């Protein structure tokens, strides 16, 4: 067992927001990647789309999730599934930070996981 602590002092920019990637993590053999994401009050992520499947878990605060031009309230405790190819962004139109955890995967990640998993068992 291993616990990783969020390092708020060393968050890095990506997609117009700050975050900390789950990988690399040598102890973790997983078929997915993830990142802790922080959007400052009044900020928003860069609109984007990609081929991966994605889940966002709202951890703190409130925001607006815009998917393919449609706005949805997204608040702490919510979980959203984003299909591949949708254009999405998170808008924090409040003063306090909004924090969420994003998890994404695709078939290549799953195949690599299975190859590592079978190698570990051999």
UniProtKB/TrEMBL annotation:
Residue ranges of domain Cupin type-2 in the record: 37-101
Keyword Disulfide bond attached: no
One term of GO molecular function: metal ion binding
Keywords for this protein: Metal-binding
Gene3D superfamilies in alphabetical order: Jelly Rolls
InterPro entries, per database record: Cupin_2 (IPR013096), GPI/OXD (IPR051610), RmlC-like_jellyroll (IPR014710), RmlC_Cupin_sf (IPR011051)
Signal peptide bounds: none
Protein name: Cupin type-2 domain-containing protein
Organism of derivation: Kitasatospora sp. CMC57
């Amino acid at each position: 067992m291993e616990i990783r602590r969020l390092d708020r002092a060393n968050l890095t920019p990506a997609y117009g927001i700050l975050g900390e990637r789950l990988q690399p993590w040598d102890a973790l053999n997983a078929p997915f990647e993830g990142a802790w994401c922080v959007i400052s009050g009044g900020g928003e992520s860069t609109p984007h789309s990609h081929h991966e499947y994605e889940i966002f878990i709202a951890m703190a605060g409130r925001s607006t999730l815009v998917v393919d031009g449609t706005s949805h309230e997204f608040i702490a405790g919510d979980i959203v599934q984003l299909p591949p190819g949708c254009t999405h962004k998170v808008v924090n139109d409040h003063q306090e930070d909004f924090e969420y955890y994003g998890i994404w995967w695709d078939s290549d990640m799953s195949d690599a996981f299975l190859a590592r998993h079978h190698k570990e068992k051999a």
